[in-house]
Amino acid sequence: MSSLNYDALRLIFVTTILLISSTIALPDQAPKSSSTQINSNSVLVALLDSHYTELSELVEKALLLQTLEQEVSAHNITIFAPNNEALERQMDPEFKRFLLEPRNLKSLQNLLLFHIIPARVGSEQWPGQDVGSVSVSVSHHETLCVGESDNRLPLTRGTTGEKIVGGVAKVTRPDDVIRPDGLIHGIERLLVPRSVQEDFNRRRSLTSISAVLPEGAPVVDPRTHRLKKPATPVPAGSSPVLPVYDAMAPGPSLAPAPAPGPGGPRHHFDGESQVKDFIQTLLHYGGYNELADILVNLTSLATEMGKLVSEGYVLTVLAPNDEAMAKLTTDQLSDPGAPEQIMYYHLIPEYQTEESMYNSVRRFGKVQYDTLRLPHKVGAEEADGSVKFGQGEGSAYLFDPDIYTDGRISVQGIDGVLFPLEETKEKPEKVSPVTAPKVVSKQRRGKLLEVACWIGGSLGHFTSCY
Ligand SMILES: *[C@@H]1O[C@H](CO)[C@@H](O)[C@H](O)[C@H]1NC(C)=O
Ligand SMILES: *[C@@H]1O[C@H](CO)[C@@H](O)[C@H](O)[C@H]1NC(C)=O
């Protein structure tokens, strides 16, 4: 029963995505109702609902649904679909990681589009049908991959007459899926266009010369963003029991007065040197001197962050670059406590990386993160293949991702200074400990809720999913 429900749900999900993307896709055209909506009989719907689940997932991740939908509304397509095995076990994990990094979206798109021909090529049209005859033994077809200088795929035959595509991949399931607007051939391996291979090689040689994690960096559970294991063995109750707000130094209208502490000055981690380390990294990175100066010289925030990290809390710093800081007026900075207030709004009490943030905004459309400036949250959404924080004029893009990530502190460079939306008059900044937002990272949602939130997010409704 549960698998039946899941299948039904998946079908609804897929169809809804297609419907949504088709209604959103063409803002500058008059709504053409039926003609722009994708047919449930389409090869595209069939692909997303087929046993090529790995490929479908990549197509979704690559944000290609709209593009492909426009393609099938104009002409037939032929998809060479690598089976799940090819994308799961046979694929170099490093290459896969590369493809899934948000900044390599273009490579992922090119890779996938290289598997699609904008024409209908059934197996009966394969060249060299009559083995031994002198007729055509190879035919070339342009693919949808525009980023490739030679974007043609050759169709040939192997020595025993088997169908081969791209010179390397055997067609294991010819005409596997046939629909009025296209068809799918199952193939046994991935086709990698040269440009993508080159991008990957370039990136790989870059990463090999830049150290990523400091030695002994703690391991973070990607599902919870919590440490998997404390770096040093400590007695029971090592992870902080109180919300981070309780551990913060009391400040004006910042946080509730500290409750009896989470065990006093227990130093599980050397937070001070980690903070020093990230500030050094910021200075070396360049372009973040103002922020470093505020943290170290203008306020005691660096010290405070060090204490929090020592207690086992994790932090993500949205770091405005110097250009952004230069736009701050003296007015904005001169109120007592103003620099702290501004900075607290840029501190998220969770460990987030570029990848984790990008994945959430992709999935839910809009996401809100708690900040250390109670009770304000900072909103994030996907924009231009990146993450955008805040709203309207006061928004900022994730500009320099993962400047520093050591498992407890993550520093993400942004190109603007963020301010909370004006709080409403009847709700002054008085936060009782009871209503203080919990720091506990959000639990996994049910599948249904995920779908609902995703759809709601895409449509811009459903604020309850935040
Ligand atoms: C797709 O191919 C079929 C069969 O050749 C044809 O009847 C149909 O018109 C084509 N569709 C488009 C959109 O070109
Ligand atoms: C703090 O101020 C000192 C003295 O002006 C300066 O040398 C140092 O670079 C500043 N620190 C940071 C992190 O900017």
TrEMBL record:
Q: What is the lineage of its organism?
A: Eukaryota, Viridiplantae, Streptophyta, Embryophyta, Tracheophyta
Identify this protein by name.
FAS1 domain-containing protein
A Pfam family this chain is assigned to: Fasciclin
SUPFAM superfamilies with a match to the protein in the record? FAS1 domain
Record family assignment? Belongs to the fasciclin-like AGP family.
Entry GO terms, CC: extracellular region
Stretches of Pro residues bias are at 253-263
Organism this protein belongs to:
Deinandra increscens subsp. villosa
What is known about what this protein does? May be a cell surface adhesion protein.
Q: Which domain of life is it from?
A: Eukaryota
PANTHER family, per the entry: FASCICLIN-LIKE ARABINOGALACTAN PROTEIN 16
